[in-house]
Design brief:
Blueprint: H1 3-30, E1 36-42, E2 48-55, H2 64-73
Antiparallel strand pairs: 1-2
Amino acid sequence: MTRKPKRLSIIAAGAGFLVVATALTFYALGQKDQGGITESSFDPSGEFVADSVLAKYDKTYMPKEVADGLKAKGVW
């Protein structure tokens, strides 16, 4: 194989890798199951400890306290 076809095959393989990586990234971002973010670490015994948890809810979620308050006022 001469230099030019070898160079083109390397470029094509790199482009193919980038296309696959981009497709997997967009697929992962589109999933609705990625439900939370944690700030966490492992303690010295190896146990996973979360300092704070940011949960992701859908647009219809309402905390029970808020729903009860709206029902008590007759708004909902």
